[in-house]
Each structure stands twice: as C-alpha cells, then as structure tokens.
Amino acid sequence: MASHETAWAVDYELVLAQARALFDGERDAIANAANLAALIYGAWPEINWAGFYFVRGPELVLGPFQGKPACVRIAYGAGVCGGAWARAETLVVPDVHAFPGHIACDSASNSEIVVPLRSADGIIGVLDVDSPSFNRFGAADRAALEALADCYSLASDFV
Q1: pLDDT of 1 over the 50 cut
Q2: How does the average pLDDT of the chain come out, rounded?
Q3: pLDDT of residue 3
Q4: pTM of the model
Q5: Backbone phi, then psi, for 111, in 5-degree steps?
Q6: CB-based contact 116:123 (threshold 8 Å)
Q7: Which pLDDT score, from 0 to 100, does residue 54 have?
Q8: For helices 12-23 and 139-155, what crossing angle results, to 10°?
Q9: What are the pLDDT digits (tens) for 107-159?
Q10: Which range marks the domain in which residue 121 is found?
Q11: Which CATH number fits the domain that encloses residue 70?
Q12: More confident residue, 49 or 7
C-alpha cells in the first residue's frame, strides 16, 4: 500500500514552472489569483478547496477560488486564515476541528494550510488550501505553496 506522501505526490517544480508561465506578461492580481487557484486545485491531490482572501480594511474578503462556495469575510485573527494574517506566518493545521476558533465553511474539510501573501506594504492577503483528509499538508507542500505565493505576489500588481 502506498504511503500518504506517495499517494499525494505533487511535482512541485512543474507546478511552479506552470505558474510562472501563466503569470508571464500578466500583472492583474485577480486574473493571476484565478489561474493560480485553478492550477493548485488541479495539481494537488486530495484537496477540496484552493483560493484567496484579500485584506480589505479590518477583514479578509474572498477572492478567486476553486471548490464549494466559501465564507466571504473573515475578521483579523479569526480562524486559520485570519490567524495566518495576524501572525504573518504560514499555518499548517492537521486537524481543523482541534484548531481554536476554526471557521467551517465546508464541513468536509479536515486539514488546512494558509500562506500569507506579502508585498512591500505588508500582508495583502492569504492563499488557503483545504483537504478532506486529516494531516494532509507536510513540509514539502508548505515550501511549494510558499514559493507559489511569493511568485504570485511578485508577478501581480495590487491596486
């Protein structure tokens, strides 16, 4: 029987190269977020949501995503997304049901990773990926999603 790492294998370098190709010549943050959400959703096995939330004043507001409809607004510090924003660091949550204050947009989600999006002005949003599997996201996923978030931020103009 295959291990989780084998069953959930992702060619991270290929996905990063595909993201760079999608962003080539395109600076629109919304268009780039839409394409990156679709790329992640198609490339990562065993996920049920991939998308973006952007800082709008005191809260995060839903951006482009793939998956079921999601919570539209998240307060600073609330849940995993708001927590990653407040801490300015990636949060990997193996069991969202054990995370204090978790916001359940999709009851099928059991684990989550949220990566802050950085610009010269600070945190501008987060990249959020959910899975129906517990303990879905490891160190390699974290490194790859952080690289994709950095690539996205550098390739996009934020108004």
Answers
A1: no
A2: 93
A3: 40
A4: 0.94
A5: -140, 160
A6: yes
A7: 98
A8: 10
A9: 899 999 999 999 988 999 999 999 999 999 999 999 999 999 999 999 999 97
A10: 4-155
A11: 3.30.450.40
A12: 49
**Residues 130, 127: Cα–Cα separation, whole Å:** 10
pLDDT attached to residue 12? 95
Spatial neighbors of 114 by CB under 8 A, at least 6 apart, are 80, 81, 83, 84, 90, 91, 126, 127, 128, 129
Q: Is 86 exposed, middle or buried (0-12, 13-18, 19+ CB in 10 A)?
A: middle
Number of domains composing the chain: 1
Is the torsion defined by CA of 43, 7, 14, 62 positive or negative?
A: positive
Distance of CA 143 to the CA centre of its chain: 12
* Amino acid letter, 98: A
Neighbours of 104 (CB within 10 A): 11
Contact 127, 92 (CB under 8 A): no
Within 10 A of 108 (CB to CB), how many other CB atoms are there? 13
Cβ neighbours of 133 (radius 10 Å): 18
